[in-house]
Amino acid sequence: MVMNKDEAKVLEQIAADAAIKWAKTGIGYFSMEDAVNKYIDAIGANRAIGNDPEAIRLGREAAALRIDIESIHALSKDQEQRLNDALMKIARDGVPRPRRSFRR
């Protein structure tokens, strides 16, 4: 579900606010994860031509970096590094894994 720019900007700000709160206090990781995943889904980073997992991962990481950039003004260097690591983990965890099964 791709949204218009205003709706996506609102979700980006919600995700950035949750990210700042988590980076500063350590509270609200799962709220931040939900907000980040909603933003990533809203901008369409969960889709790629041919459902290529590598392309999806790169799109999710780019969206996560956008949230990191929006949050950087309110954080110290250590807080920003911790947030960046958490956002990259969220981005990687949401990538669909290729299924390895036998087909007949």
Low-confidence stretches: none
Q: Biggest sheet: strands, sense, closure? A: none
Compute the number of helices: 4
Bin the helical content: 55-70%
Structural class call reads mainly alpha
Rounded to an integer, what's the Rg over CA atoms? 15 Å
What is the string of SSEs from the N terminus onward?
HHHH
Count of beta strands: 0
Mean pLDDT: 88
Task: Walk me through what this model shows.
The protein is mainly alpha-helical and 104 residues long. Helix content is 68%, strand content 0%. It is built from 4 helices and no strands. Helix 3 (53-71) runs antiparallel to helix 4. The protein starts with a helix and ends in an 11-residue tail after the last helix.
What is the fold's blueprint, element by element?
Elements: H1 5-25, H2 29-42, H3 53-71, H4 77-93
Helix pairs in contact: 1-2, 1-3, 1-4, 3-4
Provide keyphrases for this structure:
globular, 104 residues
Can you give me a brief rundown of this structure?
The chain contains four helices and no strands.
